[in-house]
Amino acid sequence: MTHHGPAGHHGAPGHAHAHDAAPQDDELAQILDLDAELFADHLAATTRRIADLATGGVRHVVDLGAGSGTGTFALLERFPEARVTAVDSSATMLDRLTRTAVARGLAARVQPLRADAGQPLPGIDAADLVWASASLHHLDDPAAALKGLFTTVRPGGLLAVAELDGMPRFLPDDAVPDRPGLEARCRAALTALQTEHVPHMGSDWRGTLEAAGFAVEYAHTEELRLDARTPSPAGAGQYAYLALRRIREAVDGLVDATDLAALDTLLDGGAQDVRHRGDLDVRSTRELFLARRPADTGR
Ligand SMILES: C[S@@+](CC[C@H](N)C(=O)[O-])C[C@H]1O[C@@H](n2cnc3c(N)ncnc32)[C@H](O)[C@@H]1O
Hints:
Elements lengths: L21 H17 L1 H14 L6 E5 L5 H9 L4 E6 L2 H13 L6 E5 L12 E7 L8 H8 L3 E12 L17 H16 L7 H7 L3 E13 L8 H16 L5 H9 L15 E12 L7
Parallel strand pairs: 1-2, 1-4, 2-3, 4-5
Antiparallel strand pairs: 5-7, 6-7
The structure holds S-adenosylmethionine.
């Protein structure tokens, strides 16, 4: 089961299942691609760190909850010998990922697999690297899934888990002068929803990885910041627009009407709209865990 819905990227809650969420998935894919583009340096540093720890070659990568393929394509670039099995429960995502692979001349190195990442993956074992970015928190039982993934990774291979604390923050506190703290209040409403609908967001991933038998060799939490004031990077305004629109849908009825109306002024195409303003300040907290299946364990 998936939990991406009204503000689904990065853990905002929703109720839609993959098969009835195609338009939302298309919009989510745009958000994911913009995130990868705007935080490209972070993604490159992440794959470099994986390469530093990888031993014995990286020829087969499994991208769990691959989405539009941000990780798939970054890893194909980092590991020129590798092919990627891109696993996702959403046909919309996999179609998009496949089209991108074709457009980039990488189709021969990408195998899309529509499957529930929380269940054993048919015919997939002993991968050199399993990459799970912003996907484990969607699973019903990530702890059980990680235990099941133990044999999906070869002895000595790596499991990389990238997680985050929700949608990025986009605006300074005083973005709407008569509603200071507007974005923070909306995020607080979202957090309450997340606690109910995406309970695994913000889990103790280190503990869960260790309980599954992996040895955590690298763990790092970092606040990424894209100071977009001058000049605004292309894409920042569109990212803010798509994300805040999802947040607006999710918090409708949960924040007061004045806040909702103020949020609308950020999205209505007028002077305050996030797509035109010069004060975006995009911040996002990211966690990365690199864990190894011990080489000498024959479980
Ligand atoms: C927030 S996106 C992350 C996509 C990508 N890994 C990235 O970081 O850009 C989460 C993805 O996980 C997929 N997903 C959610 N639940 C899943 C499940 N049970 N099995 C497989 N994929 C799932 C969603 O369809 C979505 O594409």
